[in-house]
Amino acid sequence: MTAALEPVRFDVEAIRHQFPALHQRVNGKPLVYLDNAASAQVPVAVLDAMDHYYRNDRSNVHRGAHTLSRRATDAFEEVRARVARFIGAADPSEIVYVRGTTEAINLVANTFGRSRLGPGDEVLVSTMEHHSNIVPWQIVCNQVGARVREVPIDDRGQLDLDAYSAMLGPRVKMVALAHVSNALGTVNPAAEIVARAHAHGVPILLDGAQAVAHLDVDVAALGCDFYAFSGHKLYGPNGVGALYGRREHLDAMPPWHGGGEMIRDVSFDGTTFADPPFKFEAGTPDVSGVIGLGAAIDWFTSLDREAARAHERSLLTAATARIAEIDGVRLIGTAARKEAVLSFALGAHHPGDVGTLLDLDGVAVRTGHHCTQPLMRRFGVPGTVRASFALYNTHAEVDAFVGALRRAAHILE
Ligand code: PLP
Question: Most Cβ neighbours (<10 Å): which of 279, 283, 286, 391?
Answer without folding.
Answer: 391
